[in-house]
Amino acid sequence: MGVNLTVIGIVVIYLAIMVLIGFIASKKIKNNEDFLVAGRKMGPWLLAGSLAATEVGGGSSLGVVEMAYGDWGFSAFWYVTAMAVAFIILSFIAPHLRKALVKTVPEYFSKRYGKKNGFVTAIIMLLPMVGLTAVQLIASATILSVMTGWSYALSVAVVTVVVAAYSVMGGMFSVVYTDVVQWFFILAGMALIIPFALDYGGGFTELTANVPDEKWSMVDGAGFGTILALIVMYVASFTVGQEAVQRYYSAKDGKAAKHASYITSAVYVIFAFIPAFIGILMYGMVQNGLIDGSIIAEQGARYALPVMAVEVLPSVVVGILFAALISATMSSASSNLLAAGSIFTNDIYHPYIKKNATDKELLKMVRWTMLLVSGLSYAIAVFDFANLIALLMFSFTLRAGGAFLPYVVGHFWERATATGSMTSLILGSITVILAERGIIPFFGLDPIYPALIVSAIAFYVVSHLTSRPAEIDVMEDLDPKAKVE
User: Do 468 and 415 form a contact (C-beta atoms < 8 A)?
Assistant: First the structure.
């Protein structure tokens, strides 16, 4: 597969634009709050574009094409559609998240349940961030290596440097602005491949003639159990995921947070079918002998989309598509970096390492933490050891297993106690690990179910058996003057 300078040129220009946006956004940063939550000034459309781009990453682009080409067939669209369902549910919670006026999820736990809960939550939230960032670097490097012929390690390095550069410069302002640009690239780039693929294959009927009927099933490939598990996993994970709720913390008010959830859900429904359909078309091309499937057989189905693009699209469109795919992965990576920097600085460094740190020192520490996480994620990505979606699912589930219920219910239930929260955090997270590793079978259930069940029982029972510290004011939502709209 030869190197196409037009394609490379388009992608290099795109990467340069991302860094330029980061530089421009850095001029808006006056203090730590500007860096972490964009001064709490974001309206619904900016928030929606950022939310959409953040959660649509390697798993939702390359991963869905891979699953559609493989065992899931067309039902792979549920991987993204389940996100749309999750954001509709989140729309009811979003105003309360904004009302709390915190910068991070662990900060909420500290104020609601005490410092020990905040510290444990910070550790639980930090661990998946490295893995989640590495997943996106893996996906980005896959695209660059197929496109340019560069080594995989070099491709990971290039993407890591670009993402770290614009994220560290502009913080939330940079991440939101680049997310909006990236979302337009994602939609346009992924959609463009469909008409060209159909034309290359001689039309829909001829192209799909050898695609078995079962691959068109809307449910069978994924299965009802997996679909339900995805919805539960997303609701639980997005609600406590720093990379998602940090957007809600950045909203100008509760109404903007709620409307952003609606908009995000709508665009996910539109996008969900695109990568699933592309995966089916790719399968048809390989079956018809239009594309040599040897590289897919040798390297794995995650190469399906890059291979298909190079084969069927004009150079300019290939460049746009690759920029779109890199957009999908980089937007998620930058959000995870900012989340990691925010949590470590706000919830570990400031309260435990340097309590009297100045605002300038905190801002510097956020940036240094982001650079460190970039390095760790790069090291993990170079080994390229895990299936994209499997790693995403485990990372999502780990942080959601124990934190979801204390976080959400804590906004509404006055009786919730610090001890109940701590018990939920620990037992829920341990259950995820035990179920994921098969140490305890839990009747074959997806790990998120036993984790939430154990977490719920522990949270409810222990909260009823213990008392709430009088100094923790609960039902005022941490901010009695803020209005939920």
Answer: yes
Instruction: Say how far residue 91 (Cα) sits from the centre of its chain.
Output: 18
CATH topology for 11-385?
A: Sodium/glucose cotransporter (1.20.1730)
Is residue 331 within 8 A of residue 178, CB to CB? The reply is yes
pLDDT tier for residue 132 given thresholds of 50, 70 and 90: confident
User: What is the rounded average pLDDT of the residues 273-302?
Assistant: 80
Q: Token pair of 378, please?
A: 């790069």
Report the pLDDT value the prediction gives residue 1, as an integer from 0 to 100. Answer: 44
DSSP state of 251: B
Cβ atoms of 450 and 435 within 8 Å: the answer is yes
Residue 230 phi/psi, 5-degree rounding, is -60, -45
Give the CA radius of gyration of the chain: 22
Closest C-alpha to 416, from 113, 111, 110, 97: 113
Q: How many residues are recorded in the chain?
A: 485
Please say whether the beta carbons of 316 and 10 come within 8 A: yes
Tokens of 310: 């190079």
- Taking the whole predicted model, whether its pTM rises above 0.85 is answered as no
Amino acid at 147: M
Residue in the block written with tokens 């903007």: 256
